Amino acid sequence: MIGPYLRHSPTHFASGQKSMGAIAFGSILRKGNSTMRTDSQLFAAVRALPHMTITKNEGEYRVTFRIASIALADRGRHNAAWHREHAEKVSYYTDCRLDAHGTAKELSAHFERIIARTAELEAGK
To answer: Could you tell me the pTM of the whole model?
Structure first.
């Protein structure tokens, strides 16, 4: 389903802006990281990252935030159905292991910054 989702493209369909995945893919290549040889290695590496999960269906990887992490960041504003919908809305799809891993690393780091900033704002109230 193509829509606001990122799918096999270095640009976001709705905005035409570079996606986080394109940024992640480029940065991981520049760092010279080796490719993930198996799905098991990829899944273990992504699931070891804070807040991230990965699935695979028909040769396509789906990288997104864990539902529990979305609920944590949401701070009780929405229900579980909204959390599931949001996880799909921000999902990244690719058929490349290296792209999936790099994107997961970038998204995990981004989510950590969001959590830290939210905590700082709440502490300053």
So the answer is: 0.70
